[in-house]
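Suppose a classmate hands you a notebook page containing two proteins, each written out with its sequence and a corresponding row of structure tokens. How would you begin to make sense of it? This section walks through that situation. The first entry is reproduced here exactly as it would appear on such a page.
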Amino acid sequence: MDKKLLFRRMRKNKFFVVGVILTVLLLLVTFLAPLYVQFDPEKSSLAERLVGPDWGQGLKGHLFGTDAMGRDVFTRILVGGRYSLLITFVVTALRVIIGTVLGLIAGYTSRKAVDSIIMRTCDIFLSLPSLIVALAIIAVMGANIRNLVIVLTLTDWMQFCRVIRNNVRVIRGQEYIKASTAFGASHAHILFKQILPNVTTPLIVLASQSIGSVVLVESGLSYLNLGIQPPTPSWGNMIADGRLYLQTSPWLMVAPGIALLITAIAFNCLGDGLRDVLDPKTL
């Protein structure tokens, strides 16, 4: 697609513009937090427990109040966002790598047994309720960030594999692929130089749409105390802790809940916008 046409489509697509703006703001606010936060996210201060939101002192005050341990909620939201986003990006990258490699193999191989084994493996994983599998694995392996990444990766790499496999099947039958094979091009050259560049568009769209769901699942597991463990902040465990004080200190649940909502909206808008921008069928 022509670059000028691509940028024009980006500017005109409202979902893409909103998604990009929100995503950039989220990344800047969370990852640059050490430069401007004033409080330690894990340091308790019982003398300041359950202090209400105070906007009068700016960043020197407790913008979103404090929790039951006297920790600044605003600081914990920013630090928790860094953990959530880092985990999300790592999980998405692993899903893309595993799904792409297996999808390329299944789509390109001429051996039906190999394709059948990979596809049946996908079917088995897809038939299992991902949340139930995640709960079972973490209950056995233990709750920590490493196991959380493993679980989130294993429960949803299949969609990448199936999309890549189907696209490779279509591209493999094109005339230029047959010509390259006839001229003696290696399988590696055909896969990585000719086929892979032509399947990156659906891969990018799928990865961007996957990020929002990973954030929600990670927060859900942390809410159940099966993800990031206290005192390390996470939006999920912050919401879980705040539910006990919903009537007296609602900011403990509302603030991280809004952060989670904005993040999910940002990446969903970005994914939908990329799908429309990169799809040649849309005007």
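The notebook's second entry, a different protein, reads as follows.
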Amino acid sequence: MDKAAEMKNGKVFNMIVLGGLLKVAPVVSDKGVEKALKKTLPERHHDLIPLNMEALKEGAKIIQEV
């Protein structure tokens, strides 16, 4: 939650957690997640994809540091 607050968007918490999970169990690549976001999010929300991808990377960093 601290990282989500740091990023000034509590809604990215789930992506931070997903990034951590994918660091431990890489069942899908970052590119795969990005592709899925583009496919599932309405086009009007595609501007949020970079923030979500940043949150994914931050989650992986947190797990790597632990």
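A careful reader of the second entry would note: Helices lie at 2-6, 13-24, 30-40, 49-65.
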